[in-house]
Amino acid sequence: MNKVNCSISRRLHRIHFRHRTGLRETNARLAGLLKPIQDDTCRCRLAISRLFSVGSVDSVSVMSLSHQANPKASHATSGSAKDDGVVVRPFCMKDYEDVFALWRRSEGVELGASDTRAAIAAYVRRNPGLSFVAHRKGQLVGTVLCGHDGRRGYLHHLAVSKRHRRAGLGRRLVDKCLERLRRIDIHKCNIFVFADNLEGMTFWTRTGWTPRPDLRLLQIDLSGACSRKRSC
Predict the structure, then answer these.
(1) Residue 203 confidence class, pLDDT cut points 50, 70, 90
(2) Residues 6+ apart with CB under 8 A from 167
(3) Are residues 9 and 76 in the same domain?
């Protein structure tokens, strides 16, 4: 009986030893798998803390800054993670005819005397490298005008062709403009949205822009002839 008990005891001891050894190996493997995740989390927290230690940022810039701190989130929201064949580049006057045609087809975009070829050429010269166009397979599919007055940036006439909407292209164009404004130390950017443009308001508020109910827009026509068509 004693021999049997000793044999059972030795077997139980070996089983217990193997179990403890297996647990240590499992814990070591888990630690190895978790370490890269912990490192990425620390780097992300450090990047965010550095961004916000620079100083106060406005609500428009916060989204773009957080995208830079989290590239995967930026790709997911902007639609640039996949190779969709869309090329975004600065606007030049050879794009004008196609751009103007897209504006005319786009709801929420009202055109006036400030949108003639001569007026747009003057605007682009005054704000070089800030406006953008998007092409796919040689066809214009999106555009946006961007400028500044030395204190605030302004976006005008963001337009994306209907076939290419809801794929992140509008946000991609806007982010390009905000990036360029940030480079020249413009800290806030404004847009004009018609009150009845509900789809436009939905887009802008979803992408981080904040309405300013404390402000009212007042405007005077210096041309001396009010246009029948509304425009900004």
Answers:
(1) very high
(2) 79, 84
(3) no
Residue-wise pLDDT for 122-141, tens only, equals 999 999 999 999 999 999 99
Strand bridging mode 139-148 / 189-191? unpaired
The span from the CA of 125 to the CA of 121, in Å, is 6
Q: Under 8 Å CB-to-CB from 211, ≥6 apart: which residues?
A: 201, 205
Across residues 48-77, what is the average pLDDT? 33
Q: Taking the CA of residue 229 as centre, how many other CA atoms within 13 Å lie in the half-sphere pointing to its CB?
A: 10
**Interaxial angle between packed helices 59-69 and 2-53, expressed in degrees from 0 to 180 and rounded to the nearest 10:** 140
Residues 27 and 66 in one domain: no
Number of domains in the chain: 2
**pLDDT digits over 20-56, tens only?**
555 566 455 645 654 554 554 444 444 333 333 333 2
Domain contains 224:
no
Q: What is the pTM of this model?
A: 0.63
Angle at 131 between CA 158 and CA 203, to 5 degrees: 25
The crossing angle, in degrees rounded to 10, of helices 169-183 and 59-69 is 100
Residue 148 inside a domain? The answer is yes
> Are 37 and 122 members of one domain?
no
pLDDT at 84: 81
Quote the domain boundaries for residue 182. 59-206
Whether residue 130 is found in the same domain as residue 169: yes
Q: Is 138 left (phi over 0), alpha (psi -120 to 50) or beta?
A: left
